[in-house]
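Hi team,

As requested, here is the filled-out complex form for the pyridoxal-5'-phosphate run. I kept the field names the same as last time so the parser does not choke. Let me know if anything looks off before we queue the next batch.

— J.
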Amino acid sequence: MFEQLQPLASDPILGLSIAYLQDTNPNKVDLGVGVYKNEAGITPVLSSITQAQAILHQEEQTKAYQGPAGDALFNQTIQTLIFGAELEARVGERLRTLQAPGGCGALRLAAELFKVSAAAQGKTSAAAHRNTEAPTIWVSTPTWANHIPLLGGAGLTIREYPYYDAATQSVNFDAMAETLQQVPAGDIVLLHGCCHNPCGADLNTEQWQQVAAIAVDRGFVPFIDLAYQGFGDGLDEDVYGVRLLADTVPEMLVASSCSKNFGLYRERTGALSVLGSNAESTYNAFTQMQSIARGIWSMPPAHGAALVAKVLSDDVLRGQWQGEVAEMRVRIATLRGQLAAALNDAGDFSFIPRQRGMFSFLGLSEAQVEALKNEYSVYMVGSSRINIAGISQNNLEYLAASIKAVL
Ligand SMILES: Cc1ncc(COP(=O)(O)O)c(C=O)c1O
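And here is what came back:
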């Protein structure tokens, strides 16, 4: 059975981590893999989560199945965190949320829902025009590396809209809007809710308003990947686009992840929220989502979701968690300013503090990235995407000197 299989190359970011671990240079710096790190270089378990874990340990009475929709309290509390109580009250039963194994699980579940919905419609008018059954999803150029295999592998047709302009280190919004104005009705447009991975350049409020207006005009379905709520400008500020769209468009989806803002990476905790044009269509979509989940992972893992539900439903733990998210956000913003200042005499790096979240492109060539790795033990992805959280007061000076040396 397996004799004809060819080996696959290991994931480049994973390969980078292995090379970093094997590097014996005491000054080595890891800006590769996308996990938050504190000043000590550790991805910590948040203390709000440790406390929730202790309470859960006392309270938990069963490990019996929860069902494909997962933890009801998690679904309710995460939905309120994303959409806000006021908007939730306004849209009522047009909105439902289902627990998924991480943001990746939510993205995959959405892809399956798009296929089921397209099949139920016969061909969408857009698909009929292209003579294909597969729903089309438009992703930003560039987008998170896993979007393409994840959504394409699920059978969606992938198309791209222009997004990041390396020359101005910001969003080329005119080009983006021009392409979105051509998107056929019924297609899906994937948007990063905040803290764009990999480029760190986000839409401003006027640009979100324009995207919402184009979505209504064209009739495409916005689908937001929300993996960094709280890492940009604040827990509410970072979902401006999500809430604006939910208030404006008839249908949309949000795939959210608790990996970063709750530090629950390996617990695989996320959700898919669906907003339908009416309560009945949302309910129908929700039953389809449960059936799809049942056919892939059957039920999501319980532990991470139980911790999030505990933190968000307990005023004291919630306040503590908000403080911890603020701490991570402020650390990243501070490092952005410090790196730009340290590189100041080598060029204009003022874009670094203008961007948000954990990632930015330094704008280096592949040869410069290679030289940083081979000569200075500074590790980053080939595109020169850096994880800002990998910087610390200990390595900042060495990092800046190394970057200047290869420039
Ligand atoms: C943009 C984006 N979306 C989704 C995810 C998925 O996160 P997870 O599946 O770990 O919850 C990530 C993780 O790095 C991400 O960066």
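Two things worth flagging: The chain has two domains: 12-45+329-406, 65-313. Residues 12-45+329-406 form a domain with the Aspartate Aminotransferase, domain 1 fold (CATH 3.90.1150.10).

Thanks,
J.
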